[in-house]
C-alpha cells in the first residue's frame, strides 16, 4: 500500500517561529548599539584654592561646557564658537550686559586657548559676569 503525502496548498501560512527569533535578535542588537546621551556633559573640573560662591538670583545664567577636544556644549547640544557668540550677544541685548552671567566649565585636560577664546567673545559682547567652573581643592 502506497501512501502519498498531501500536497501543500498554495498560499498556506509561513512558519513564523523562526521569524520571531530573528525579530528578537534584531531588538537585542539595536538596543545594545543605541546610545543614550545625558542631558549634561560629564566634565572633569580642575581644582582651585579659593572659590567665590556668591550668586545673584536676578541674573540670567548661561552654562557652557568645553571638552578636551575643544567642543562647546550648551544644554546638552554641541555648538560652534559663532553660535556661542550669537547666543551671548542675544542674551546681552535682551537682558542687559550686567544681568547676564556666563559659566564656562572646562575639562581639566582642555587647552586653555579654547576657554580664552570664549572669554574674549564675552568681553566683546560687554559681559563682565563670567565664571570659570572649578572644583574646590580639598
Automatic annotation (TrEMBL):
A Pfam cross-reference name: ExbD
What Gene Ontology molecular-function terms does this entry list? transmembrane transporter activity
Its main subcellular localisation, reduced to a broad class, is membrane
Q: How does it sit in the membrane?
A: Single-pass membrane protein; Single-pass type II membrane protein
What the entry lists under Gene3D superfamilies is as follows: 3.30.420.270
Q: Where in the cell is it found?
A: Cell membrane
The portions of this protein that span the membrane are: 12-33
Q: Which GO terms describe its cellular component?
A: plasma membrane
GO BP terms: protein transport
Q: Which domain of life is it from?
A: Bacteria
Which keywords appear in this protein's UniProt record, sorted alphabetically?
Cell membrane, Membrane, Protein transport, Transmembrane, Transmembrane helix, Transport
Which family is this sequence assigned to? Belongs to the ExbD/TolR family.
What is the name of the protein in this document? Biopolymer transport protein ExbD
Organism, as annotated: Anaerohalosphaera lusitana
Amino acid at each position: 500500500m502506497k501512501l502519498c503525502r498531501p500536497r501543500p496548498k498554495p498560499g498556506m501560512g509561513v512558519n513564523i517561529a523562526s521569524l520571531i527569533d530573528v525579530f528578537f535578535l534584531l531588538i537585542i542588537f539595536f538596543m545594545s548599539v543605541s546610545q543614550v546621551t545625558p542631558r549634561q556633559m560629564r566634565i572633569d573640573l580642575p581644582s582651585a584654592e579659593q572659590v567665590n560662591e556668591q550668586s545673584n538670583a536676578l541674573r540670567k545664567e548661561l552654562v557652557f561646557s568645553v571638552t578636551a577636544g575643544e567642543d562647546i556644549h550648551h544644554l546638552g547640544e554641541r555648538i560652534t564658537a559663532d553660535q556661542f557668540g550669537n547666543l551671548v550677544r542675544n542674551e546681552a541685548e535682551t537682558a542687559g550686559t550686567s544681568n547676564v552671567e556666563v559659566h564656562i566649565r572646562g575639562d581639566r585636560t582642555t587647552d586653555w586657548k579654547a576657554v580664552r577664546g570664549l572669554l574674549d567673545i564675552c568681553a566683546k559682547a560687554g559681559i563682565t559676569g563670567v565664571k570659570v567652573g572649578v572644583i574646590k581643592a580639598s
